[in-house]
Each structure stands twice: as C-alpha cells, then as structure tokens.
C-alpha cells in the first residue's frame, strides 16, 4: 500500500506539475502579501513616532511639518493596496490551478472507469463510486486551493518569529520554543484521531449514498411490498453511522484549538516564570529585563499561531490524502485485459465454440463446470435452465466481461483472449433483458452503436425491430426526448429499441437475454417477430425465459447447477421427456399436449 507521502506526492506533484509558472507567481504574490503583513506594523510604529513628533513640534513652535508622516502613511496605503492585489491574484491563480487540476483528475477518473473490467462494478456500490467523484475530489480541490498559500504564509511567519526571537535573546528564545515537541506530539495525536474519523465519515457517506441509490432504483419494489419501514430503518442506521463518524471527527477536530490554546498559556507561563527568574538572577538591568519578558510573552503567543495554523493545514492535507487514496483505489484497478497484438476479425466464418469451460466469480467457488457448446455460423443456440444455473454467466464469458478460468472460447478457431477487444465487441452484439436507455432522443438511442447511421437506416432498424409504429404514435416521433425512460417505454418496448440498436450495428454474433415473461401478448408477438429479424443470419445465443420463443432454435442447451444436462432440438428434448420437457410442460401446459 502506498504511504500518505507517496499518495500526496503523486496527486499534488503529478497534477500540479504542468503549472510551474502559475505556482512561481503565486509564491511571489504570497511573499508580497507576507512581506506587507510583517512590514506594516513597523511602518505603523514609524507613523506613530512621526505623528508624536508633529504634535510636539506644533505644541512647541506652532508649526506643522506633515511631510514625513504623509510619506509613511502613503507608503503604508500603497503597500497594503499592492498586498490586496497580490492576495486577489493568489486566490485567482491557485483557484484556477486547483480547478483545472481536479477537473483533469475527474476526467481521468471517468476515462479509467470506462477501462476497468466489469467485475469492479459488480462488487462496488454505485454511491461509493459516486462519492469518489464528488466529496473525495472536493477534498483534493480544497487542499490544492488552500494548503499551498496557507502553509507558505504560516511557515514564513514561523521563520520570521523565530528569527526575531533568537536575534533578540537566544536564552529566552530557547525557553519560548521548549514546549514545541509537546505541542507537536499533542497535535499529531489529535489530528491522527481526527483524520481517522474523517476516513470513517467518508466511508460511511459512500455507504449511505449507495443505499440511497439502491432504494431509489428499487422504489417501486419497496412500495409494492410495503417495505417502507424497513427501508427507512436501513437509512436511519446508515445515517446514524455517518452522524457518529462526523461527530467523532468534530470532537477531535474541535479539541485541537482548546488544547493548543492551553499549551500556549502554559508556554506563556513558562516564559514569564523563567524570564522573571532570569531577571532576578541579576543577569540584566531590571527595566531591560522586564521589557525582554514582555516582548517574549508576545513572541510566545505569536509563535504558537503558525503552529496551530500549520496543523490545521495538515488536517486539510489529511482529508485530501484520504480522498486521493480512495480515488487512487479506482486508478489501481486493473484495466480490462487487452492483448497488445490482438487479432482483428471481420465477421464469423465458421462459428463459435466453448470447450470445457470452467469459471467462478470468486476463488474456490466454481459456477460453470466444463461447458461445451458448438455454435456453427448462423446457428441459434438457446440456453435454458432454472434461475442461478449459469446462463448469464455463459453470456458474460462470450463477451469477455470475464475470462474463463480453464478451457477456451474460440471464434473461427481463435481464442477470444487473443482477439483485439474492440474487434471482439464489434463482432458480438448484446441485447440485454433490461436494456439501458440514455438521455437524448429516440433516434440517438437507436444510433447508439453507430452514431453515423442515417435516418433511413435508423427507421429500417426500428421497423425490423417492430418498434417503428409505436415511435410514430409519439408526438415528436424519433425526436422524442428520453429523460424519464419509464414514462415512454415499457420493458418490452425498451427491449425492442435495443433490438433496433443491434440490427443497426449488424454484429455477426448475437447474445440476447430475452425479456422476462411479464410482457403483454401484443408486445410478446412483436418481440418474437423482432427476435426472428435480429437473429436471422447471425450466430446467436439466446437466454430464453419463455420456452415458446425457442422452439425453432437449432440447439437448446439445458443448464443446471453450471452443467449442461440436456442438449438437442425442441422436438428431440420433448421426445427425451427429461428436465426440459418437464420445464416446458410446467410453463405451457396447454401447448405441451400439442408439441
Ligand atoms: N458478479 C457475481 N459475483 C459472484 N457471483 C455471481 C455473480 N453473478 C452471478 N453470480 C452467481 O453465479 C451463479 C449463476 O448466476 P447467473 O446469473 O449466471 O444465473 P442465471 O442462470 O443467468 O440466472 P437467472 O435466470 O436468474 O438470470 C449464481 O449462483 C449467482 O449467484
């Protein structure tokens, strides 16, 4: 695991590297601001002295010579105006740099997400992933925006106070900084606990977001099953975890200032005590000695201010490092395996073959136990079987969402792991059971796989998929905006749209997860016609839920517990009177007698 330092160096170093000039200019503008802050009290002192002289002269000689005072006042105003501009420039430049850097990080994170294998999304909650784009990146932005300027300013102040103290009286200087190790230790202790609480809080917020996301997606299921109370209870407990973590963080973070103030008072007491003792030892004249004590009481307080501020800067860095660590977890995910010299295929000439395929999602839990399927070009293979038998898993392997553990899947004799991944995906189309529609028009959604397709091709695909007529009933036809997909399309219609998409991209191999049986009879007839259109001439694998739709398949493979237990055409399997025949009779008793 990378250390905090490595993480900070990577994120701050790597992302700030392209902006050296902006950073150099900010160093100068901060230096101007710091210089003005340090120099203004000196000028103020001069101004007071000059004003006193003016008043004394006026009393003594009734003459007023204001020039030196006006010069000092004008210098003070000028310096502070310049410092004000410098401060504005610092904020603008660093705000810009932080904004551009985090925007780049966000883009790279998004691009990375597109390259990660599907397994990561299977095991990561959506909300948690979303939190990495939002709160984690916000923390990194805050650090980039504030840390640089604050640490430079307060570090400069610390050095300034140290120089002033040691040039004034070394012995007293040593006494004033003597509590520093204790202060640093206390700060470190408090901040470590505070940042641990921040980590917990960020994790808890991620889990809460994931839960909210899941509950919003499943709202209809919750309502229809009357699960509102358990849903609220689940939310309440996760919300309480967030609150507890936030409160723990607040308590630890809130402890910092009082503890440091206490230490500052202790330090002041030590300075007064030691200074008085020092003076009483007769090491210096009483008046001078008391002046030194008074000055060092001031220094003792000034010295602690930068230490407190620098520790709070450290706190911001901690939050950013936590965010960066969570973002880096995404970057650390392996990309989908792509062979560098992968073969490019143009269509399927002989067929697709699965040979002794074994696979499990988790180590030691095998789901598929030696699957053999031979699908010659143009054949339609249907996979049927009870829920959880492994049908979708076979589909996941065909498209290389996952790789087989042992055995092989070949297209025209070439292992699909040796193919260029894009070429494989271009040649294998998928129609999912519950296809995803994206915001945009219906036309955009059909053209999804082939954005250059013309209107005629889009309409032709929609006609073949039997969705054209429905689209034409909508007031805006193909220009209908899909914002709330549920309100425009039923589940069956969404699948018809997805079939139109696939017809447009014309893949030689098709994987289709047929929509579940809960579609009305009109849509079912349309789906059947669309399926006939989309499978025609293609090597297709069909997960069938309604066995009626696959009676014409060239081969039906019956899966049970990850093994093919029966294989044949519909007629052969019915004649065998085995598991398939039983399934068929259970599903369609009225047809079973005619089959
Ligand atoms: N991402 C995953 N991680 C771990 N196990 C998984 C994953 N996806 C599926 N499984 C497990 O693999 C087994 C087969 O699941 P699969 O989805 O392939 O079944 P299926 O036949 O398609 O079921 P259904 O008809 O219900 O869709 C099940 O036991 C399931 O729990």
From TrEMBL:
Species the sequence originates in: Lacticaseibacillus thailandensis DSM 22698 = JCM 13996
Source superkingdom: Bacteria
Domain ABC transporter, first and last residues per copy: 352-586
InterPro entries noted in UniProt: AAA+_ATPase, ABC1_TM_dom, ABC1_TM_sf, ABC_transporter-like_ATP-bd, ABC_transporter-like_CS, P-loop_NTPase, Type_1_exporter
Keywords: ATP-binding, Membrane, Nucleotide-binding, Transmembrane, Transmembrane helix, Transport
Cited Pfam families: ABC_membrane, ABC_tran
Cellular compartments annotated: Cell membrane
Chief location bin: membrane
GO cellular component, one term: plasma membrane
Topology term for the membrane: Multi-pass membrane protein
Name of the protein this chain belongs to: ABC transporter, ATP-binding protein
GO MF terms held by the record: ABC-type oligopeptide transporter activity; ATP binding; ATP hydrolysis activity
Gene3D superfamilies on file: ABC transporter type 1, transmembrane domain, P-loop containing nucleotide triphosphate hydrolases
Domain ABC transmembrane type-1: 24-319
Transmembrane region(s): 21-42, 73-97, 147-166, 172-191, 251-274, 280-300
């Amino acid at each position: 695991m990378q250390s905090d330092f490595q993480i900070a160096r990577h994120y701050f170093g790597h992302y700030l590297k392209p902006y050296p000039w902006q950073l150099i200019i900010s160093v100068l503008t901060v230096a101007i601001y710091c210089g003005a802050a340090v120099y203004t009290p000196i000028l103020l002192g001069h101004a007071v002295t000059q004003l006193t002289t003016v008043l004394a002269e006026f009393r003594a000689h009734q003459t007023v010579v204001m020039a030196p005072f006006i010069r000092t006042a004008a210098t003070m105003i000028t310096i502070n105006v310049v410092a004000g501009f410098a401060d504005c420039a610092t904020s603008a430049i660093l705000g810009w740099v932080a904004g551009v850097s985090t925007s780049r990080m966000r883009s790279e994170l998004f691009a990375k997400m597109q390259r990660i294998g599907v397994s990561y999304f299977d095991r990561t909650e959506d909300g948690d992933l979303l939190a990495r784009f939002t709160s984690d990146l916000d923390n990194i932005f805050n650090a980039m925006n504030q840390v640089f300027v604050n640490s430079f300013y307060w570090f400069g102040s610390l050095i300034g106070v140290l120089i002033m103290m040691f040039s004034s009286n070394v012995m007293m200087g040593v006494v004033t900084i003597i509590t520093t190790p204790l202060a640093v230790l206390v700060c470190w202790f408090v901040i470590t606990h505070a940042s641990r609480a921040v980590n917990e809080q960020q994790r808890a917020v991620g889990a809460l977001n994931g839960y909210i996301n899941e509950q919003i997606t499943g709202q209809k299921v919750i309502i229809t099953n009357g699960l509102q109370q358990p849903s609220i209870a689940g939310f309440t407990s996760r919300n309480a975890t967030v609150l507890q973590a936030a409160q723990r963080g607040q308590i630890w973070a809130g402890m910092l200032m009082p503890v440091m103030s206490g230490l500052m008072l202790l330090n002041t007491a030590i300075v007064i005590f030691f200074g008085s003792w020092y003076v009483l030892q007769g090491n210096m004249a009483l008046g001078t000695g008391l002046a030194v004590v008074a000055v060092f009481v001031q220094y003792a307080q000034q010295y602690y201010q930068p230490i407190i501020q620098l520790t709070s800067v450290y706190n911001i860095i901690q939050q950013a490092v936590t965010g960066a660590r969570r973002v880096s977890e995404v970057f650390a995910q392996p990309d989908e395996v792509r062979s560098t010299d992968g073969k490019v295929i143009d269509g399927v000439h002989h067929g697709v073959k699965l040979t002794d395929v074994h696979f499990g999602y988790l180590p030691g839990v095998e789901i598929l136990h030696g699957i053999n399927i031979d699908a010659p070009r143009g054949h339609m293979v249907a996979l049927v079987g009870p829920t959880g038998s492994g049908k979708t898993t076979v589909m996941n392997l065909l498209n290389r969402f996952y790789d087989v553990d042992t055995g092989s899947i070949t297209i025209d004799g070439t292992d699909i792991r040796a193919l260029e991944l894009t070429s494989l995906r271009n040649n294998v189309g998928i129609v999912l059971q519950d296809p995803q529609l994206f915001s945009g028009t219906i036309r955009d959604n059909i053209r999804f796989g082939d954005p250059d397709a013309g209107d005629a091709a889009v309409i032709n695909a929609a006609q073949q998929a039997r969705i054209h007529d429905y689209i034409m009933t909508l007031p805006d036809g193909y220009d209908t905006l899909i914002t709330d997909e549920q309100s425009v399309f039923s589940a069956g219609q969404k699948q018809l749209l997805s079939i139109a998409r696939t017809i447009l991209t014309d893949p030689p191999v098709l994987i289709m997860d047929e929509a579940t049986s809960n579609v009305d009879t009109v849509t079912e007839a349309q789906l059947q016609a669309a399926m006939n259109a989309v499978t025609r001439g293609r090597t297709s694998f069909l997960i069938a839920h309604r066995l009626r739709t696959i009676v014409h398949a060239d081969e039906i493979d019956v899966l049970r517990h990850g093994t093919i237990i029966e294989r044949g055409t519909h007629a052969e399997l019915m004649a065998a009177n085995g598991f398939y025949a039983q399934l068929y009779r259970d599903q369609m008793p009225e047809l079973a007698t005619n089959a």
